[in-house]
Amino acid sequence: MRANQKRWLYYVLVAIAIAGSLVSLFALFELGSPRWTISVNMLSVVCILLAMKMHGRNTTGRDG
Fold it and tell me: How confident is the prediction for the chain on average, in pLDDT?
């Protein structure tokens, strides 16, 4: 994958994590914490971990 594609994938993962967190907070305060927020939180955590892994590879110079 080219560097430009990796950068965009990183931004997309971070955006998904932020959006998931905002949806979860909205559901917590407005809807009384429905059960589906657990899935949204897990998706946010997975996106954050993937983004961190990608960012770590980019800063250390490893490609792959």
Answer: 86
